[in-house]
């Protein structure tokens, strides 16, 4: 058990994955981050921390999440067999609870009183509010007022869970300004608060820490798949926003070179600027939110507007380890657009009775294409990162007619 999150070679001690990652922050914040890194490196070897996290993963989240052989979908396609790692069955309905519990428990062990974070669509806010409650911490979530109106059910969830939702009314009134507001609040009191980032992004140590907490997905999957089929999967597929669910699955398999790995980015409405969020496919290296990575940016290095039908994939940057994995060619980064994702959303619902999150539907859409290409006898393991209940109102309003509803 103790080895599950301790066996990494990357990043280096300064938080670099090759040329990517690092920490680009003001000096006063650097001191705080250094303290978090030190505490994390000590605490992740601590038996009582690992035991408590394992207990919560099992009895609170409901891990291990099963792997399901989507036979109906596979038969419909008539190619490779598609298997789903069911992160949608976790308590709170997605993989985000895995790293939120880790971050909450770390904060508790460091003697913090409060977790702070921003949220866009509210998924990270709800998972963090849940983790804060079970671990016994206060929780402040910063959210743009436009997002508060758009994602009202998640605002209510956070409040019911006892978190404070702090409206941000400056600038774009969405995620970007919520990040700034949350960081300012954090800097006012980094002693009793911990900033909990929602993906494998931000300055060191967050890309490392969040990955380590998500690696449980890959560790379970490797063993479960072997028990089910007697082999490793031939292909892995996961959607990539910031990249946490993808790196969680991929991490356990990176050294097995014979396994093909695919990260699926959102192509949105097409490949024109502002109409997608396919950072690795169309971006260039740059610096944003305190770390160096591929970035969708203009000539001046400012982030470009991004769009995807899946609000969880809608980010102009990407986790630094993915940038390295792209450059060394270990992972193939591909795309699925809005239409393909919505097709897969209905497709999986109607073939196998599983309503996927629109984010996860991007991975299912690409897996279906890959299954055709790979053909019978091959296998594909998809990380089904979350359930689609949060998306049903939007899908019916926007696409209902097209799908006969
Ligand atoms: C947030 C979210 C994502 C995207 O985040 P990653 O860090 O790229 O995993 C994907 N799927 C679901 C269900 C999400 O809630």
Structure description:
The structure is a single chain. The chain is an alpha/beta fold and 405 residues long. It folds into 2 domains: 17-57 and 96-207, Rossmann fold; 63-94 and 215-403, Rossmann fold (3-Layer(aba) Sandwich). 44% of the residues lie in helices and 17% in strands. It has helices at 27-43, 47-61, 71-77, 96-109, 123-135, 145-150, 152-160, 175-188, 206-229, 244-250, 279-282, 320-327, 338-352, 358-374, 392-399; strands at residues 16-17, 20-21, 67-69, 81-86, 114-118, 138-144, 164-168, 193-195, 235-239, 260-268, 284-288, 291-295, 332-337, 379-384. Strands 3-4-14-9-10-13 form a 6-stranded mixed beta sheet, sandwiched between helices. A 4-stranded parallel beta sheet has the order 7-6-5-8, with helices on both faces. Strands 1-2 form a two-stranded antiparallel ribbon. Helix 4 crosses helix 5, helix 5 runs parallel beside helix 7 (152-160) and helix 9 packs across helix 10 (244-250). The longest helix has 24 residues, at 206-229. The chain is globular. 56% of the residues are buried. It binds pyridoxal-5'-phosphate. Pyridoxal-5'-phosphate is lined by residues 94, 96, 123, 199, 239-246, 312-313, 357, 359-360, 385-386.
Helical content class: 40-55%
Strand elements, count: 14
Strand percent estimate: 15-25%
Number of helices: 15
The shape, in one word, is: globular
The whole-number mean of residue pLDDT values reads 95
Report Rg. 20 Å
Determine the CATH topology of the largest domain.
Rossmann fold
Profile the largest sheet. Answer: 6 strands, mixed
Content-based structural category: alpha/beta
Strand order of the largest sheet: 3-4-14-9-10-13
Tally of discrete structural domains: 2
CATH-level-2 architecture of the largest domain: 3-Layer(aba) Sandwich
Order of helices and strands: EEHHEHEHEHEHHEHEHEHEHEEHEHHEH
Structure ligands: pyridoxal-5'-phosphate
Low-confidence stretches: 1-7
Task: Kindly report how far apart the N and C termini lie.
Answer: 48 Å
CATH class of the largest domain: Alpha Beta
């Amino acid at each position: 058990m103790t080895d599950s999150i301790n066996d990494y070679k990357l990043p280096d001690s300064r938080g670099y994955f090759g040329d990517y990652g690092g920490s680009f922050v003001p000096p006063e914040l650097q001191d705080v981050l250094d303290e978090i890194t030190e505490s994390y490196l000590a605490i992740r070897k601590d038996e009582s921390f690992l035991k408590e996290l394992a207990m919560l993963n099992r009895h609170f989240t409901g891990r291990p999440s099963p792997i399901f052989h989507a036979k109906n979908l596979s038969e419909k396609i008539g190619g490779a067999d598609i298997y789903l790692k069911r992160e949608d069955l976790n308590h709170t309905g997605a993989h985000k609870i895995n790293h939120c519990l880790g971050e909450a428990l770390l904060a508790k062990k460091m003697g913090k009183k409060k977790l702070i974070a921003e949220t866009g669509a509210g998924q990270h806010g709800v998972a963090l509010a849940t983790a804060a409650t079970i671990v016994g911490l206060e929780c402040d979530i910063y959210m743009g007022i436009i997002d508060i109106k758009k994602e009202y059910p998640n605002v209510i969830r956070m409040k019911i869970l006892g978190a404070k939702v702090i409206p941000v009314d400056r600038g774009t009134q969405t995620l970007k300004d919520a990040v700034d507001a949350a960081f300012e609040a954090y800097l006012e009191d980094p002693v009793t608060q911990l900033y909990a980032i929602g993906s494998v992004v931000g300055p060191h140590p967050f890309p490392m820490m969040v990955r380590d907490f998500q690696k449980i997905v890959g560790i379970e999957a490797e063993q479960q798949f072997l028990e089910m089929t007697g082999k490793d999967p031939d292909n892995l597929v996961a959607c990539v926003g910031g990249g946490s669910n993808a790196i969680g699955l991929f991490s356990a398999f990176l050294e097995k070179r014979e396994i093909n790995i695919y990260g699926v980015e959102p192509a949105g409405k097409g490949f024109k600027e502002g109409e997608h969020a396919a950072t690795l496919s169309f971006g260039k290296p740059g610096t944003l939110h305190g770390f160096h990575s591929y970035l969708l940016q203009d000539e001046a290095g400012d982030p470009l507007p991004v769009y995807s039908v899946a609000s969880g994939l809608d980010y102009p940057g990407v986790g630094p380890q993915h940038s390295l994995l792209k450059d060394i060619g270990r992972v193939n980064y591909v795309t699925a657009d809005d239409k393909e994702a919505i097709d897969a959303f209905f497709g999986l619902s109607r073939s196998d009775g599983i309503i996927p999150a629109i984010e996860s539907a991007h991975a299912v859409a690409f897996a279906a294409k890959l299954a055709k290409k790979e053909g019978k006898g091959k296998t594909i393991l998809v990380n089904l990162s979350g359930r689609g209940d949060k998306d049903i109102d939007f899908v019916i309003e926007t696409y209902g007619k097209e799908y006969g509803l």
